[in-house]
Design goal:
656 residues, alpha+beta, 7-stranded mixed beta sheet, 6-stranded mixed beta sheet, 19 helices, 31% helix, 22% strand
Amino acid sequence: MIRAALGSAVAVLLALAACTDPATCALAPGETAVAVDRLGCPTDFAALATAKDDSVFAHTETVLVIIDREDGDALHFIDSERYALHYDYASAHLNLPGKTAVGSLADFNILNYRRPNRRFVLGKLVAYVDQDLLTYELAAGDTADAAMIIAAFERVRGALYDGDRLRYRAVSAEQERHLPALRDRIPTIATDEVFRNQTYQPLNPGVAYGVLRFRQTATLEGTPLSPTDLVVLDRVPNDVAMVAGIITGEFQTPLAHVAVLAQTRGTPNMALRDAWTDPRLRVLADQLVRLEVGPQAFTIAVGDPAEAQAYWDSLRPPALQLPVHDSTTLPLFDVTRATVANVVQIGAKASNLGELYTIGVGTGHELPLPERPLAIPFAHYANHLAAAGVGPLLDAVLTDYAAGTLTPAQLETRLFAIRWRIYTAPIDPALVTQVATLARARWPEPTRLRFRSSTNVEDLAEFTGAGLYTSAGAALVDGEAALANAIKVVWASAWNAQAFVERDFYRVAQREVRMAVLIHPAQDDELANGVALTINQFSERRPAFYINSQLGEVSVTNPTGGATPEQLLYYTWYEEPEYEVITRSSLMGWAVDWPSPVGVLTDAELDELAGYLTDINARLRVRYPGAAADVEWKLLPGRRLLIKQARPFRDRTETP
């Protein structure tokens, strides 16, 4: 909780909205109280409000509100810094004679969030500082009907000094379903509008030191960045090199590739509207700075060189990481029979996928997964590089890079030579024939196949290696030459500059890098796609799955055209399925004959997906203790869910 951070800002905002006579205040200047029955002036709100560090929106302040229906709808505007939960206040002050007992926390929640005969209506006032907006909101799991919502809203509005400004925000699908009955009775605001009007979005809180560099996303590939640079970008990139911190001038998709990279790298990451021209940043261009990305606000100032060096040193593992591999096993793998133990032959992506095929076997609850994928093990990659004479080229690059004699441009030139050698060298024809034969036995000739990277330098304890390598496509009807080219594209991508620099930063032994190839049918006709994390990144106190979804083939991980995905928190701690809507997909207006008028997935499909996420999370937590799961999925024709891949997710950020 952070009262001081925004309290004065909220007081000023609300005072500008309604300059009220101080005589109307419920609290005298400097007075404190555990609760009041009205908010008579802006300073009353400021005295009771808290800036929650687990809010899904930044620059907000919150006051918890209880309406006691057994006490004449008595209002309690609560000191929300002192009492984090409605229950904390109610158990301390509202166990009144002749009234329904507050009871245990579990009993309190069931009765007062889910029952029509509840004693209390539990809501909150939220001030959105950047938007001149004050809302009344219920919890996502609250099942209040329209009549109860209207009565509660009007009761609260009547006790505010400026009640005409108040708006109701529905935060769950069930609450959204009441909106047609509410709009003619009380003023409402859509969650999407609140999301669009933010100015600050903390994607990955933390502290960073770096030289502040302004770069345009369109020319990012031509302007190398280093791990000691803190980059300000005009737009959201699909990818970014290893840097000290990220600030984008556009809002980010929270589970987009660049945002997840920042989380797994431990890189502080934020969005700030108009960051490109923000004078607070421009005045520090090309200087060493200290950036602190907080859950409610950020700070940036000139950095201390000694502190910066200590910070950079702390990010690197203390010892060399030696990835293990078996480079002698030649037979291709049926991935449905693989487990994580096969990571030494076929890499993390393929072995993690193989692990999923054993979930629910024989129970009728198997996961929907790619059809009979294959994997080309490391041995073929190692043999190809040896035959192509890559070893001397790689040794020379590693020697010169360690000596510090290569500029970023020179490094890219040298690595391109390695990639070109890998790609142009003839591949073992017996391997290509074997791939073609096994593929024909699995899939019809016209099937478009996806060739994906799977390395032994992914999902390490100190290095995720996510998104560093290249996938390729080919079909059997294209001929064996097309299959060979696809395989070599994936192999060569092991030596792109971004992967090389990032592995070096995390002290990964470069000579031990091995690349396998995962092969399965491509799915290019999806109705929707998405990413889910089996962790609530906003609040550890409220376990949930964080699900991002988008229509069609518009990617969640690499969005285009400013498309905003649907963002949901699917809570796993309620008795019954409940989810909170952060924002809906910006493309829903284009949906035709869609079963849900507002959501990408129906409630039944969300429940089905949540069941798969539960099973995947349970399995990967055994294999990767302490990790959550990062899951990519698709919705196929016939509205069939498909789990594309799953990997362990470790958030390396320490919140300031």
